[in-house]
Amino acid sequence: MSTAIGNALWSPLAHMPSVLAGGRTIITHGSGTHLTTDDGRELLDATAGLWHANIGHGRPEIAEAAAAQLQRLETYQSFGSFSNDVALRLADRLAALSPIADPRIILTSGGSDGVEVAAKLARLHWQLEGRHDKVTILSRADSYHGLHAFGSSLSGPDIYRDGYGPGTLVPETALFSSTDIDDLERRITELGADRIAAIIAEPVIGSGGIIAPPPGYFERMQELARAHDILLIADEVVTGFGRTGRWFAVERFGIAPDMIVTAKGITSGYAPLGAVFVAPRLWKRFFDGPDAPIYRHGVTYSGHATACAIALANLDILERENLVERAAELETVLVRELEVLRDQPGVVEVRSGAGFLAGVQLEPEIPGDRVAAVALDRGVLLRVIRGNTIQISPPFVVTEQEIALIVRVLRETIEQFA
Ligand code: PLP
């Protein structure tokens, strides 16, 4: 652990005294599934960072695409009647991949920005329809939707909302059960469908503990949304661009959303970027006639040319190397390897089989952060997420042997604590 540099950095979501006392793990290089620290340790990235490094780290093709774009034009704003050629090309390419027919694409600076875009657009839609009470947005109790105002309000755990005093977050939000879909129906009845603008849901809950939808969950959600004129927003910030073995998880789980929020995998983390896919039902009024309204959301970096060039190069790699299909194959390998953990003392549950991602929930007495620290000392970088759950979600370029190694190190480490 190194403490020599970076005392000025205030790390997000961190207990800073512990960070400064324990020292940071400082990553300086990456190549494929491997990372190198400033003190020369080699680590196997078992989570693809924060679920972003789908094509693996340090790919020269991306560096070349970024350099070529920077030499030509770093960016020009994609605002008003200006845009840049790369943002336009990326939007067309995303539209061609989109599970929503004939979408329009809003490019964002990341996932939290995308959630903001989708939530505000849902509310604006109903205001323009004259249904002024339809403002509440519902989300699943274990979900994570980023940490901007809507995201903090819509993410399940209280820790993201508490402590800011009144008026900072969006009060017109409500939670429903992540697993019991009847609870959604109860919430709609309680709140009144006339007050509900949208439901936002991760197809597979990521940071909330890797929770797959129970059978019938999304079918019923969709029936309820349709019956009550409620918009459906899929948050595919984790699942988009291949993580569930499909380009988008809504294809796998049979969800027909009005908007899809994406980020992370759109560039595999090589640049901050996101995209919101918007269905015709929502975009049409903004595109037609002199009185068309304006959606006043955007940031300086919406459609940033270099980020978009990186996204295009990332899509090229995903397609050329068939990495989405590869993720589907790797899911089978991961499920098989994880079998050994199912009856292991100290393990409550192994959640896998909803894509190339898995969660191993540990008994409360097993300190998940210590398990991750010991695994790190053994060269495997895992992460503890909500509910004392160990996240496994390697890059799509991981080998079967590396998956076996990840599971072996995890099993042996849990044994030490059980
Ligand atoms: N939505 C989901 C499902 C996420 O997992 C995340 C980030 O982890 C976000 C939104 C926020 O994305 P970002 O961190 O890019 O703002």
TrEMBL record:
InterPro entries: Aminotrans_3 (IPR005814), Aminotrans_3_PPA_site (IPR049704), PyrdxlP-dep_Trfase (IPR015424), PyrdxlP-dep_Trfase_major (IPR015421), PyrdxlP-dep_Trfase_small (IPR015422). Coiled coil: none annotated. One of its GO terms (molecular function) is transaminase activity. It holds the Pfam family Aminotran_3. SUPFAM superfamilies: PLP-dependent transferases. Keywords: Aminotransferase, Pyridoxal phosphate, Transferase. It comes from the Bacteria. Transmembrane segments: none annotated. Belongs to the class-III pyridoxal-phosphate-dependent aminotransferase family. This is Aspartate aminotransferase family protein. The lineage of its organism: Bacteria, Bacillati, Actinomycetota, Actinomycetes, Micrococcales.
